[in-house]
Each structure stands twice: as C-alpha cells, then as structure tokens.
C-alpha cells in the first residue's frame, strides 16, 4: 500500500504539474495581451506626469540676461558674413570663421578630419573657439555647437551667426564658472564626431579615423546645446530634439530648463521635434497626438540613430539637446527673431553655468508624450518585462511537457488511448544536439554576415547590397541543409524505432493499463525522445526572453519593437501536419527577418533597398549604433532558427 | 568648662550674628540681584552668538545672506567678534558665478554689502560639520583649538543660536553631507546646562519644518523660535535678477525688519518680535517655544540676546532718570528702515546714547533704593547688642 499511496501522491503532483504546464501557454498569451494594452496606454494623459526641474542648482530663467539689442544687431551682421563664406570650400570657410572668432577675442582653431568607412571616405574641417571664464579654474566647460548643414539640408546660417554673437556677449561677462566652447562642425554628424573624439583623446581605430588633435582645449564638458536655426528668417516655434545614439537620452532637466525659460524670460512656443500640433480638448485626438510623439521618439531610439548632432555628445556622458527653429508660415504663434533666440540661449547657458556637478537629479530614462509631459521608467518597463516573462512561460511549458509526456502532444490532445502512459518520474530523453547545433550555426551565420558587411575586401563591384545578397544565400543554404538533414535523420530514427517497438508494444500497453501490480517502469530509453523542433523552439523562446529583457534595460524602444515583432510568431508557430501551413509560417518569419524588414522599410520610405542598407552601415561605422550588430548577432540568428524550426519534421 | 569650648561657642555665635546682621542689612536681592535672575532681569553678564549656515553651494546664496544679516545685526547691537562664532560655508562671495564679486547682498536693492567690512568667519567651508557644531556648543573641543573657535561661555552667558539651511522633520542638513537631529540638539543643550555653560539661550531657526528642531529640547531657560511647523516649507523672500538667485528667506527677512529698528537701548521685548510674526507674510507658521523659559516674554529684552548690554557695577551716586518710563522711540517709528548703517544711526543721535548711559546706571544699581540706610545701621546695632548679651548670659550659665 505504501508504494501505492506514494504513487498516487506523485500522480496527483503530476496531474497538478500538467495542469500548470497546460495553462502556461494560455497565461503567456494573456500576458502578451496585457503587455500590448499597457504599451498602448502609455501615451494616455493619466499615465504621464508634468515635467519639473529637479536640479536645484539650475535656477532656469531667474537671472537677467545681458544679450541686448546691440548683440542682436551684431548677430544680424554676422549673418551676412556667414552667408558670404558659406559657399566656400570647407577649409576656407573654416578659416574665415576662425578669424571671426579670433576677432571677438576668443581663442579659436580649426580641425581637419578624414573619416574612412567601408564604402567611402569623408573629409572636412571644423572650427572651434573657447571663451575662457575669467574667474574660474577652467576645469569645466559647456559647448555650444552648430553644424554647417541644418537638418533641412540648408545652411545653418542663423545658428552660426548666433554662436558668434553669443561669443561677443559672453566676452563681456565675468560671472562664468565654466569655459564655453563654440564648435562649428562640418559635414553631417561625422564632423562633430571627429571633434568630440579628438577632444576626449580617443585613439581607437586610428587607421580608420584620422582627426587632427585639438590645439585649443578646455575642461571636462558638462553639457552642450546644439543649434539648428536654418536660413536667415524668423521662426514660429522652437523644437527640441533629444534622442541620442542607441536610444541614450539626456537628463530630462536639460529639456525642463529650456521649458521654463521658454515660459518666462524668452517666451517662445516649444514643441518636441519638428511637429507642431494644434491644441485640442478632444481626448481621442490628444491621445493620438501623444502616441505620435511617443512613437517618433521610440522609432529613433529603436534604430539607434540620433535625431541631431546632440546625440553624439551623449556617448561621452555629456547631456545635450538640439534646439531647432521651426519656420512654419501660417502657424498661429507669434514669430520670433534672433534676439529672442539669443536671450533664450544666454539664459540657458547661465542656468547650465550654475551647475555644480553633472546633471543627475532628473530622469535619464523617460518617454515624452509632450514637451511638458513624461512617462517614467517605472511605468513603461513592466510591459516589456511581461513580454519577456511570457516567452519564458511558453518555453517552460514546452520544456515540461516535452519531458513529462511519453506520448506526443498531438496524441494527448486527441485523446489517443493506444499510446503508452508513463509512470510518474519517468522522463523522456531530451536531445539538445540538433537544437544547439542549429542555433550555433545560425549565430555563426549572423556573425559572418556582420563581418562580410563591415569589411572592405577591395573586390571589383563590391557593394553592401551584393554582400547582403550573398549572406542571404548562405542563410538559405543553412536553412535548407538543416531542414533536409533533420528530415532524413528523422526517417532513419523512425524506422529503427518502429523495428524495435514492434514486439514489446502490446505488453507495454497491457501492463500500463493495469499498472496496480506492475513493477515494470517504462524507462526513458524505450520512449521516443522529444521531437527536435520542441527543443529548438524552447531554446529560441528562452533566448528571445533573454535578449528582450536584457535589451530593455539598455534600449527600451529597441527591446519593445523587437519583442512586439517576434512574440506572437515565435510563440504560436510550430511545424504543422500540413506542409502548406509550415511554409506560410516560414514566409511570415522571412518577412520579419532583417532583409525582409529592410525591404519593408525601403518600401515605406520609398527608397532603394541598397540606400537603406548603406545608411544602416554608415550609422554603424560613423556613430556606432547597435542596429547592425543587434540584427546580425541576435535578431537574425533567432529568426533563422525559427524558420528552421517550423520546417522541421513533426515527430 | 574648658576655655577652648568657650572659644568655639564664641566663634559660632559671632558667625550667626554676622549672618543675621547681613541678612537684615542687605536683602537677598542686593547681594545676588546683580547676577541672579528675576522676572525682568536675565542676570547675565555676557552675550554670545552662534550663527550657523548649514548650506553651501551657489544656489543657497540666501542662507549665507541670512546668516551674514544676523551677524551684522548682533554686531551692530554690540556683540564683539570675539563673542560671535560664525559657521559659514562662505563659498558665495567669491564664487565665480557671482556677478558682483566679493559681495553678499540680502536685498534686491543692493544698498548694503553684508560682506563689505570686517566679517570674521570662524568655521569656514568644510569645517561646518555637525561634529564641530556640537563640540563647539558643549565645549569639547580639541586642546589646540584657537579661542576664536571656542564658545567660552559660563553660567552668566546669554547665547543667541541662529541656524539656517535645509531641514526636515527633526533634522537639519549640514552641507549635503550629514544632518543634525533634534535629539542631538536637545542633548547638546542639556550638556551645556549641566556644565553651566549658559544662563539663557535664544534658539532661532529658519529652515523647512523648523519648529520640529526644537521639539526635543528639555533644558531650562531656553526660548526657541522657528520659521515653519511640521510639514511646512519655509520660503525665500525674493530674488535678485542680476545675481540670479534668491537673496533672503522670508522668516529672516521679517525678523530683521524688527531687529533693524532695535538699538542698544531699545526696550523691545521678545514678545514684540514674536507678535510681528504673520502667516501671510511668512507663508509658513512660525513657532515659539517658551515652556522652558521662566521669564515672561514681554519682559525679556531683545537686547538680552541680540545685544551686548551688560550688568555693570555702579558707584554710590545715582542719577534717577525719567527715560525709563519713556517708550522706545525706535519701535514706534513705523518707517521702513530695513537696511541702515548702525554707525550713522548712533552718530545721528548722540543725545540718545547719552541717555542710555544714564539709564544703565539706574537700572543696574546695587540694593533696594526704597530701603533706608539708617534703618539698617540701627538694626545692626540692636542685633549686635542682643547677641552680645545673649553670649554673656550663655557663658555665665556654663
């Protein structure tokens, strides 16, 4: 009886365990739904709070500014100067600007740089000047920068003339605790990148990047404002761009400071990015507007590309934002000219000058649904963690069921009585060879693709697109070979198993059905091992959970977009009895594979796929975004393994 | 009977007689009144001030201005630098962010530079710590500590303790590094009491939730006042847009507004000061704690704490002056004279300062003027005769 009662207890546990395991998949789908709804709720007003200045030292807008009408006139005069030199070659205009800064009395210099990527080499000249604070020790500095090229692809005339005018204003003051560096960078992002690299003495990749060392230097940069005021006209509103490389964000106090100043001492209309959205009382419209703003931020964060040159500072732990003058004729707000911009900038610099240490009081992780509303990390992290947990639940239930059941999941579902029932504690052997080999091969393929794309071989007619096509070819070869060998192997195992099983099946059946007095235990060796696809799927789900949750801490938007994209296909897809279904699943997985997504992106933005690819490459090589490595080392291998998984034989 | 015992009795009798004689001839107040406390006299002989600013950093400009304003006030009212212990981060005047280098102002008008002349900071910068503060109060300073960093008080000392900074419920932050709790403070005061280091203390604190800071004081003769009650913030009064920071706190501002009208001969009392507290002006609920204080507040002069008006021994000749009955003209004067030069004020009214001297001579005279001196001599003679006869009678009995 002792044995019996023990058995029944164990059986009860098994029943309970099976109940839990069978509910887990359902639970994980519920969790996915919760996570999706949570994410959609984030832009809603009730889930965001008003921003506030957290750092006491900033005191935004509390001091009078010295920027006066004369400075405004000076700025307008500089505007003509800048316009006249704008069309000169890089080196000449940089030197002309250097002279202008020197004329104000600032120490100025130029910097040559050449940047080699795998496809091109970029050359340019930066100009920079330093205002040394007369009464400080020169250990800290602030940066005001502008690029020659605005984000509108026109000359950044107003911004550069503003730098000159501010230089002149600051030269009069003695109340600075930090030096102020003015940087006018060449090119798009690479100019400022070269300058920052040289400033921080970063010598890595000396062969690929060559930037002239800086002759004029100052202290550690505490914060930076990047100006983007295209053209020579007035503006309707001020846009703030804040997304940096790889989704890094500046401290929220940077935005809050500008916010307070724009409400007080320099009244301008402030918005996020370059979108002006009319005020509305309509809740639905408000929600949609917030959603749009949030998606804009998340898009740039996920791709890892900065929305302006400010994003480069963030890599060096310098808080920075870009201020962009929005010129939208016909917009209702009052237009403002350089004078207002000058007051705003001087006030912002005065605030940052008050800082005693790096900005640290306010948030570094936030989603903005409006320039004055934020959603904190405590509120937006749970959905992505829930998403990760749902992966884990799915993987656990698969793992449990694959070991516990001697019979195939299918037959359990169909109530097939002919298959043997296992005694408690019996385990089916789990064979990880196929799964781990497949996953390993997929990761190696991804890594190979990455190196193929980023290495210049010097072959004739070598383009990134060609390389990508080659790696897609390699991938499809991998899938084909893996799937075909699995099918062949499966047939061999099946035939051997059938030959072994033909005799003892009946005895097994009898003994199992009347198991009260039987000492015979069905051992693992006699059962079919768990199917390879179950093992592979378990592995894929576990790795997905790992990557999504880990990435969420590094780059929330990337993790969320990856999670949303893969959660349902990876959880729901499995080899089907009908080949057509498996093939459809494989095609959907192919659509969400990196090349597939690239095609979608090129269609969406109406660009050539090769342009999209070279853009991704450029972002990686110049700015060091994670998009390409993540896609090659994490996303694509998982995707490849998933494609192989749905094509594997069922048993 | 032995001659020695007779001598003993004789000596004892002489003693008793003398004591009795003295007790009759001079009443108790005459002897002790010079130092002792009574309803209207604090009985102190020296004044000290401990002024503590527990904040540092540029944006806490106002706390340093608060403290320097108090420093200026107590100095104006006569407490010398040797009796003022000032603890100050002192990182504002010469801060590179200060658009007016080497100045500290407490008003947007910038008429008065608090940092202008002869400011003696005793504990500067990182020396402003809880440990140093408590050591200072309790006198447990290291041997090599200079006199300027010691609170050399005794049981005749009246001490003004003014603190300002950032605080919370029963604590006050010291320079973003540490904090002192209300218990620490209460304990320090108790030690001071046990060591007879003070006669009376006025504890004044301007910080958020300031009134909680004096809730744990249990030692006698301490009157305390704070700027705000539990869960209330204390606010700054106004800022100077050129300097770019707030320059003074509300509580200090309005306390100073009263003190600026007080001069050394002022008869203004603590009650007069406390009565000016107004929630609408301070935007917080100021508190006063006087349950440990045994004199009625309307008889405690402000100068007992803020000034250095001391008891002095006087000559025989006394000049009765009617100025005692006059009310203090300065307090009636409602003109805003917030920032004024004390020197100028004194110079402009020499008459007043002369009357002050007379007033002093009157107020602090030994003995009770109502008592007749002749009556004392008569009483003394009668008692001596009585004692002598009693002595003779006693010895003959033996």
Automatic annotation (TrEMBL), chain A:
Query: Which residue windows are transmembrane per the record?
Result: 20-42, 377-401, 434-453, 465-488, 539-568, 580-606, 626-648
Q: Which InterPro entries match?
A: Gaa1
User: What Pfam families does the database record attribute to this sequence?
Assistant: Gaa1
Instruction: Supply one GO CC term from the record.
Output: GPI-anchor transamidase complex
Q: Source organism's superkingdom?
A: Eukaryota
> Which Gene3D superfamilies does this entry report, sorted A to Z?
Zn peptidases (3.40.630.10)
Query: Keywords, A to Z?
Result: Membrane, Transmembrane, Transmembrane helix
Q: Name one GO biological process term.
A: attachment of GPI anchor to protein
Xref: PANTHER family: GLYCOSYLPHOSPHATIDYLINOSITOL ANCHOR ATTACHMENT 1 PROTEIN (PTHR13304)
Its recorded name reads Glycosyl phosphatidyl inositol protein transamidase complex subunit
Organism encoding this protein: Linnemannia gamsii
TrEMBL record, chain B:
Q: Signal: is it a keyword of this entry?
A: yes
Q: Which Gene3D superfamilies match?
A: 3.40.50.1460
InterPro entries found in the cross-reference section: GPI_transamidase, Peptidase_C13
Provide the active-site residues from the annotation. Answer: 166, 208
Keyword annotations from UniProtKB, A to Z: GPI-anchor biosynthesis, Signal
| GO molecular function terms listed in the Swiss-Prot or TrEMBL record | GPI-anchor transamidase activity
**GO terms classed as biological process:** attachment of GPI anchor to protein; GPI anchor biosynthetic process; proteolysis
Recorded metabolic or biological pathway in which this protein acts: Glycolipid biosynthesis; glycosylphosphatidylinositol-anchor biosynthesis
- From which residue to which does the signal peptide run? 1-21
> Is the Manganese keyword given for this protein?
no
Q: Name one GO cellular component term.
A: GPI-anchor transamidase complex
Similarity annotation: Belongs to the peptidase C13 family.
Name of the protein in question: Glycosylphosphatidylinositol anchor biosynthesis
Task: State the species of origin.
Answer: Linnemannia gamsii
